[in-house]
Amino acid sequence: MWGYAFIAPTGLGLAIFYLWPVLQTAYFSFTEWGAFGGHTWTGLDNYVRLAGDPEVGRAMLNTLAYTALGLVGIPLAIVFAALINRPGLRGVSAYRTAFFLPVVTMPVAVAMLWRWLYNGDYGLINQVLAVFGVDGPNWIADPATAMYALVVVGIWSSIGYNLIIFLAGMQAIPKELYEAASMDGAGRVTQFFKITLPMLSPTAFFISIVSVIGSLQLFDLVFVMTGSGQSARANPAYSRLQTVVQLFYERAFVTNDRGYAAAIVIALLVVIAVLTILQFRLQRRWVHYV
Predict the structure, then answer these.
(1) Buried b (16+ CB within 10 A) or exposed e, 148-186
(2) Which of 218, 167, 282 is nearest to 60 (CA)?
(3) pLDDT of the residue at 134
(4) Domain total for the chain?
(5) Residue 243 belongs to domain spanning
(6) pLDDT per residue over 163-181, tens digit each?
(7) What is one GO cellular-component annotation here (predicted)?
(8) Is residue 148 in some structural domain?
């Protein structure tokens, strides 16, 4: 009885602030909202409309592409963590702090900074390229570079979190394994691939789950770097940058089509659930638990 009493505040908070909004949104996805509030039951009309909406399909493909490309940050974090974890390296705390700073920086500030860096007219990146005689593009407005530019920002802002987690995982690996491998003649590279990576696989699995879920909910970076509504649609690369959550925002708060917006976000919830279940099934093939 006391156990239930102790978890009751947390359970009540989860029910009110997480479970109830999900159920309410699911209900709203079967309704149509009027211009002045109020809603009427429309059944599956929103989902039928969603299935035939090319803008939803495009936004979903953009979101999945961003998610897939963003996974490149996981091996990068492992490499940087291995470099920082070298015995005798000085300034480890400074390196960890430098990598983690983007994580604790407000996403809006990060987006504004990179928006300036990517600016085609006065951005720092193009100014550096001009020194070498290279005419850089307008990174966020060019359909050929917009998605990759966005992925770079996403990796830069999250690699610190992944690095700290991987660093903790590396420091938890028993030193005896490396000593035994050294006695057998294994070098550092062999030890990394035969000991470090297999022992880090549960950590990598956790990071991949968190990264995929976070990437599928991308909104703030795109919103700040491209805007919304007509100003965003004036961007030539808008069709390559629009995400599902951004489309949900526009339908819910710009055009006031809240029932359809609820259907969009419920569809995203289903995609997240399916991908998470798939990851849990696939982890049996590559995750090694001690």
Answers:
(1) ebbbbbbbebbbbbbbbbbbebbeebeeeebeebeeeeb
(2) 218
(3) 87
(4) 1
(5) 53-286
(6) 999 999 998 988 898 889 8
(7) plasma membrane
(8) yes
Phi, psi of 275, deg, nearest 5: -65, -35
Q: Averaged over 18-46, what is the pLDDT?
A: 87
Report pTM. Answer: 0.90
Angle of helix 107-118 relative to helix 124-131, nearest 10 degrees, comes to 30
Give domain status of residue 195, yes or no: yes
Asked whether residue 19 is domain-assigned, the answer is: no
Whether the pLDDT of residue 227 is over 90: the answer is no
Bridge partners for 119 per DSSP: none
CATH number at residue 170: 1.10.3720.10
Sequence-distant (≥ 6) Cβ neighbours of residue 178 within 8 angstroms = 191, 195
33-40 contacts, C-beta under 8 A, 24 or more apart: 33/256, 33/257, 33/258, 33/259, 35/256, 39/258, 39/259
Domain-located, residue 213: yes
Tokens of 269: 């919830």
